[in-house]
Structure formats: C-alpha cells, structure tokens
Specification:
Order of helices and strands: HEEEEEHHHHHHH
Radius of gyration: 16 Å
Number of helices: 8
Strand order of the largest sheet: 1-5-4
Shape: globular
Number of domains: 1
Largest sheet: 3 strands, mixed
Number of strands: 5
C-alpha cells in the first residue's frame, strides 16, 4: 500500500511539473525517537516534517476500533488503516509543496488563527488521501465497501468524537483537526475528483 501511495504521488507530481520526494513509513511499538522529538503510542499515526517521515504505532488500529468505533480495522486488507496512512502521506505532500511552512508563517503572524488554520490543514490531508483512493479504486485495488470504511475512519478521528469519548464534552475552540462532519466530506471530494487541486479549497471553504 505504501509503495502504491508513493507511486501515485510521484505520477501526480510529475504531471503537475513538480517532484515528489519519496519518504519512509516507520512502524514502532510503544515509543520512537523522531526529528520532532520522542513520541509514544498515544500520539497515533503522525507525520514529522523535521525528518519528513510517517510514523505509525502498531497498536493504533486496535485503539481506533476499540475506543472510537471505527469500522474496518479488524483484519488484513481493510481500508481504514490504509486511509489513516494515506492521510499522513498527504501531510508529506503538503510539506513538499510548502503548505506546512506557509501555514506556520500565518499562524505566527496571527496567533488567534492558529487552531483555525490547523483545522484547514487536516481536512486537506484527508482530501489528498481521497485522491489516492480515487486511483486505487480505478485500478481495482479498492471496492465500494472499502471506501465506506475509509469514510468511517475519517469520521472516527474527528476532534468532536475524540473529545466526547475522552473528556465527555466537545470544545470546538480546542480543535486542531476538525470535526467528523468536516473531515468526512473532504475525503469524499478527493476520492470523487482524483484531482489534488480540489484539496486546496479547504483554505477558502466556508464549511471549515
């Protein structure tokens, strides 16, 4: 799956006249040292821009299923784990394209917009994961049921659902990833269009 995601972004980048820099998926148990510091399994899958690598704790998918009710995380070949990893590779694409750096500059210039801008970054990565899913579906690597699993995973990791499960209340002003209802449609937009340019609309959309 990782090879397929990177091959697809290599192709899409070449068609756009850009270069995709192949990165590495690091699987770990319990904890790991990264260019962004030490991370524990509580972090979940993440992308570290400092070393440009994707990190996934092997226990995350059990947590996704058991704590947040995400469907499709119970066995090999199911799409929810693939969606989560594709999302982090979307973060890598953002880093290559300078989006992460531009957002940080805006956050430093206007600290009151820090959370708002973060909420726009994460759905864009969901959309980019959907772009990969579009091609994977066309190539026969995914079925319609797989897509539903990916949408279910997107819904399960919205800030609103995570806050409700972990603290018993929802506090939107603390969101950094967006709500379930915000994240799920952006995966769908990327999947339906197969066009990375559609994902840029997260920064102008009134839905976020």
């Amino acid at each position: 799956m990782v090879q397929d995601v990177q091959a697809e972004w290599t192709r899409l980048s070449r068609e756009a006249g850009a270069t995709y820099e192949v990165t590495t998926l690091v699987l770990f148990d319990d904890g790991v040292e990264t260019g962004c510091g030490v991370a524990s399994s509580a972090t979940g899958p993440f992308y570290c821009p400092a070393d440009a690598r994707v990190y996934v704790d092997l226990s995350f998918f059990d947590v996704l299923r058991q704590q947040f009710g995400a469907p499709g995380t119970g066995g090999p070949g199911e799409f929810a784990p693939a969606y989560s990893i594709a999302h982090e590779f979307g973060r890598h694409v953002q880093n290559i394209r300078g989006i992460n750096q531009a957002v940080r500059r805006e956050q430093q210039a206007d600290p009151e917009r820090t959370n708002e801008l973060s909420v726009r970054v994460e759905p864009q990565a969901d959309c980019l994961a959907g772009v990969w899913g579009h091609t994977a579906f066309e190539d026969g690597l995914l079925e319609s049921g797989d897509v539903e699993q990916g949408l279910g995973a997107a819904a399960a990791v919205g800030d609103d659902r995570i806050q409700q499960r972990t603290q018993g209340r929802v506090t939107p002003h603390n969101w950094t990833h967006g709500s379930s209802e915000q994240r799920r449609p952006w995966f769908s937009r990327g999947f339906e269009s197969g066009d990375p340019a559609v994902c840029d609309e997260t920064f102008t959309s009134n839905d976020l």
